[in-house]
Amino acid sequence: MRIDKSLMPSIIPALRDAGKWNVLSEGQGGWVFLLGGRIDAVAEAVALLQRRHRQVFVHIDMVRGLTGDFEALRFFHEFAAPDGIISTHGHTLNHAAKLGMMTIQRIFLIDSQSVESGIAQVERQEADAVEVLPGVLPNLIQQLFSRIKQPLIAGGLITSLEQVHQALAAGAVSVSTSNSGLFGLPDLGNGPLTQKIR
What we know:
- This protein has a single domain (9-183), classed as Aldolase class I (TIM Barrel, Alpha-Beta Barrel).
- The radius of gyration is 16 Å and the shape is globular.
- The protein has 7 helices and 10 strands.
- It is of the alpha/beta class.
- Helix 5 packs parallel to helix 6.
């Protein structure tokens, strides 16, 4: 894995609009998820955020005008130069890994069958980290934490600090959220917070 779990922030801002990158403070470091937009707007946001010393991960499936094949990803890697990508598609993750990008596999926890199929996908793809949605299901996060070797990121429907604490206590290393009220909070420490919160 190319992601150092100890360097992952507890809260990751997830921006639905790449043009809104300036809602983030001038603070140094941290991660940002860009959840789509036009390819040129995404490339501009990546460059501006990286100048602020942020690591930028782009949800590649949601970038308009881009496919997940190898040549499209190679172009995007050279044109936008994100630190990594997020995708639900195994072939896209494999292509990105070959290009040297960090990869985050996104899986959805809809029912017990989706949990099992998600675990099987993760085992096949060997992404650097796994984002699970929705992130407000601490019992399922705890189950995944015991079965997946990659660092877990809880995302989706997280709107409060209490939900952040619950996800981290269940085993998530980080929480991604589009709630700007959570963006400026101090880091809560690296790794699962089971011992710190209980």
